[in-house]
Amino acid sequence: xxQGLRDAYVDLVLGGSCLGCGxxxxxxxxxxxxxxxxxxxDMRPTPCPPGLARTVACTAYDGLAKAMVIGxxxxxxxxxxxxxxxxxxxxxxxxxxxxxxxLLVPVPSRPTSVRARGLDSTRTITARAARRLxxxxxxxxxxxxxxxxxxxxxxxGLSAAARAANLAGSLTxxxxxxxxxxxxxTGAVVVVCDDVxxxxxxxxxxQRALAQVGVEVAxxxxxxxxxxxSLPAGGRFALPSHHIAN
Length: 246
Ligand SMILES: [Zn+2]
Prior knowledge:
Blueprint (H helix, E strand, L loop, with lengths): L2 H12 L15 H6 L5 E2 L12 E6 L2 H13 L5 H15 L6 E5 L4 H7 L3 H15 L4 E3 L4 E2 L11 H8 L3 E2 L3 H9 L4 E9 L3 H12 L6 E7 L21
Parallel strand pairs: 2-8, 3-4, 3-7, 7-8
Antiparallel strand pairs: 1-2, 5-6
Helix pairs in contact: 4-6
The protein binds zinc ion.
């Protein structure tokens, strides 16, 4: 069956269409997939939490990338896991070279969200990214070292200050077994993985929890970063200079 016919079939059976252009068929057509950035780039939240490790995102959190993240997370559109994993892998590549062992630590979702959604989307994307990197010769493993503290609220809709308060002490590397895993991989390049970089508070908290058990983080890799549009005196929308690194 040709790709076109396959897309038509998928559309007929599942009523699917591309999230980018609306073409009938797969959730992400070849043309839209190819238009996504090929390489992650340094992006910093503003304001940036003090001490935050290097942060890399593949693209801005809007348009197609946003639709893909929400599609997997909120609608369980599992066909998006691979393309999202590819985007995350592009960010990891900026932080780690093939050669030394690389440990990807996904930021955990709250257990209640995982139960409600039947899916830990960040962990899923991280696993797909690892598979992609392994195929490229990386010595890479996924290590879900972090757990959330009960009572953590959903971050969506909270202000930066409220997020920071909500998150303080929210992540831990609790079990002796997990700590052993963390120690055994000493010397590995440790990269924290998340879907979206917003205020950087979650990433900073993950970094703090890992530091507490002696694991130093090389950087934070994400699929996408929210880009704050500032309105300068001239009245024209502009991106802060650090968001247009490439
Ligand atoms: Zn498309």
